[in-house]
Amino acid sequence: MNVEHWMKRKLHAIAANDNLMRAWRLMMAYNIRHLPVLDEAGQLVGILSDRDIKKHALPLESRETILARQEHLESIRVGSVMIRNVITIAPEAPMQDAAFLLKKHRIDCLPVLRDKRLEGMVTTTDFLDYFAQTQGQPAE
After folding, report:
1. Residue 14 contacts residue 129 (beta carbons within 8 Å)
2. Backbone phi, then psi, for 99, in 5-degree steps?
């Protein structure tokens, strides 16, 4: 089976000049852990994960620090935190190739590009669905 059969096509993206608080809100609103970072032309320039944001968040110790954390995250631009050397895959690639790349690079998502254009994303969660369905188990 190819990546394009399992990838998510409806993506939520962010720009490098957006702040981490906006990225966090997008992730929480759509229950996602990765955001592709696109330039003005819609080209992929990076990837941002929830772990990248958590590395830059202040510890939450009291009610007073909630506002401090929000202000801190608003002060940091996505472009200063995002991963720039993004590992990608083509939509026609076999799922086994995607699994190999995820494991080799110890990452949880692969943007799917066709002719340098972002078409989707395949994640470790998609692999759980793939495994469940190919082993005869229904995926939700």
Report:
1. no
2. -60, -45
Instruction: Give residue 64's pLDDT.
Output: 59
In the predicted structure, residue 93 carries a pLDDT above the cut 70: yes
Closest Cα partner for 120 from 31, 42, 30, 7? 7
> In this structure, is residue 123 part of a structural domain?
yes
- Six-digit token pair at 134? 């190919």
Half-sphere exposure of 86 (CA within 13 A, CB side): 25
List, in order, residues 6 or more apart from 61 with CB less than 8 Å away: none
Q: What is the pTM of this model?
A: 0.85
The answer to whether position 66 is within a domain reads yes
Beta bridge partners, 120, equal 112
The Cα 100–Cα 82 span in angstroms is 23
Dist. CA 94–CA 97, nearest whole Å: 5
Contact criterion met (CB below 8 Å) for 23 and 33: no
**Number of folded domains that form the chain:** 1
Q: What pLDDT, on a 0 to 100 scale, did the predictor assign at position 62?
A: 53
